[in-house]
Amino acid sequence: MQGQVVHAKRGIRSQYQAIQSSLCKDSAPFSVIDAFMKLYPFQTLYIADLDAILGIGNHSDLTLKISRKYPNLNIWLDCGIRQVNARALYHGNDSQLNIRPVVGSENIANLQDYRAISYACESQHILSLDYSATSAMGIAELHNSARFWPDHTICMTLNAVGNTQGVDVSKLNDLIQLNRARKNPSKLYAAGGVRNLADIQALAKMGIAGALVATALHAGTLSKADIESIHTIKNPN
């Protein structure tokens, strides 16, 4: 937001402040990413361009610089895509193969727009199913059925982001049930409320493919040793 990495809390974007991290001295994007990569060689980086999501600008040039500095890093970019022409906000597959668009349900007005975006992205996008503290955000067709989900789907519980209340297991279980109706199930990812290694282990037992984690890394409640232990479990050889 405004060129800085901010600490997202409970989805109340007007109150987001620059991140204060145990991993780095400032909130400049490259400082934070460099710190993450020194901690562990992560393969995927999720970026929410909040200015673009809020409609007050965008950081497409910065995102391109990040993708070029880290060409082997898979970048999942949410820049508030609402319609097909909004894809101009990110430099997609034509120029940088390591950037994949995240389509947030909160920004989609109708199923026709979503299907047009999906077609334009050749179904290579990531769907973020967004939830406030009280309701599903966006069109019901995406929340009530897995029919239109792509290969990768995020359960984004915004009210749990940046705090220590834990993961919304009930919501994840609802999505797991919907996912079972698909011939080729979507890989599900948890976002919001991940506190530590125990949370990630619990998600793995549920069959969740991965988790979006930031606060636990900045706070040090998820350590390098924890991350390495997760990798060892997934890749015993």
Summarize the SSE layout with pairings:
Layout: E1 6-7, E2 17-18, H1 29-39, E3 44-48, H2 50-54, H3 60-69, E4 74-78, E5 99-104, H4 111-120, E6 126-131, H5 140-144, E7 152-157, H6 169-179, E8 187-191, H7 197-206, E9 210-212, H8 215-219, H9 224-234
Parallel strand pairs: 3-4, 4-5, 5-6, 6-7, 7-8, 8-9
Antiparallel strand pairs: 1-2
Index terms:
237 residues; alpha/beta; TIM Barrel; seven-stranded parallel β-sheet; two-stranded antiparallel sheet; 9 helices
Give an overview of the whole structure.
- This protein is an alpha/beta fold and 237 residues long.
- It has a single domain, classed as TIM Barrel (Alpha-Beta Barrel).
- Helices cover 33% and strands 17% of the residues.
- It has helices at 29-39, 50-54, 60-69, 111-120, 140-144, 169-179, 197-206, 215-219, 224-234; strands spanning 6-7, 17-18, 44-48, 74-78, 99-104, 126-131, 152-157, 187-191, 210-212.
- The strands form two sheets. It has a seven-stranded parallel beta sheet, covered by helices on one side. Strands 1-2 form a two-stranded antiparallel ribbon.
- The chain is globular, with a radius of gyration of 17 Å.
- The N and C termini lie far apart (41 Å).
Condensed summary:
The chain is of the alpha/beta class.
Strand content: 15-25%
**N-to-C span:** 41 Å
Reported by name, the CATH topology is TIM Barrel
CATH architecture: Alpha-Beta Barrel
